[in-house]
């Protein structure tokens, strides 16, 4: 029994569609998570492998700012913890203390950089509230000029904790996972 031109064309069409679908799935699977991780999170490639997806970090967070990546968001990272978009990490490190796998490593407060906050200077009204709030954490926000008309964030000092975000009356501050400190992986004590 021979194959017809129509059957061959149909076969090629199905193969092309399947190749496109598989290629898209592989592309999605290779994408890293674009949200802030809890403090002490190791590098993404290692994090994906060692995080047990046990949920203990979320249960231990007193501020309830840890959520878990959904299957529909990112297949390989599904179930791993991220911080809510504008969630304020209290830097209590409870999440690190309960992590059984070492995906979250102990780090000193000054190295607990989860990302960076940015001020939209066009929106900033120069109220100084963010400066007062940040001075209680790491003093990463200061006045941009002597007239004290705009605030500026030092990205090198900013921990990305988000304490300044809910306090801004004009929503001029946004958080990103950029420049997060990712400590080297080490097996947890007693493992």
Give an overview of the whole structure.
This protein is of the alpha+beta class and 191 residues long. The protein has a single domain (32-176), classed as 2-Layer Sandwich (Alpha-Beta Plaits). It is 26% helix and 10% strand. It has helices at residues 5-29, 44-50, 56-60, 94-98, 129-135, and strands at 66-68, 81-83, 116-119, 141-143, 151-153, 173-176. The strands form 3 sheets. The chain has a two-stranded antiparallel ribbon with strand order 1-2. Strands 3-6 form a two-stranded antiparallel sheet. It has a two-stranded antiparallel ribbon with strand order 4-5. A hairpin with a 7-residue loop joins β4 (141-143) and β5 (151-153). The longest helix has 25 residues, at 5-29. It is flat. It starts with a helix and ends in a 15-residue tail after the last strand. The mean pLDDT is 90.
Question: Termini distance?
Answer: 62 Å
**Share of helix, binned:** 25-40%
Give a quick account of the main beta sheet: strands, pairing sense, barrel closure: 2 strands, antiparallel
Low-confidence stretches: none
Number of extended strands? 6
Strand order of the largest sheet: 1-2
Number of domains: 1
Based on secondary structure, the structural category is: alpha+beta
Classify the fold: give the CATH topology: Alpha-Beta Plaits
Q: How much is the average pLDDT?
A: 90
Quickly give the CATH architecture: 2-Layer Sandwich
Strand content: 5-15%
Radius of gyration: 22 Å
Shape, principal axes of CA atoms: flat
Q: Note the total helix count.
A: 5
CATH class: Alpha Beta
H-E string: HHHEEHEHEEE
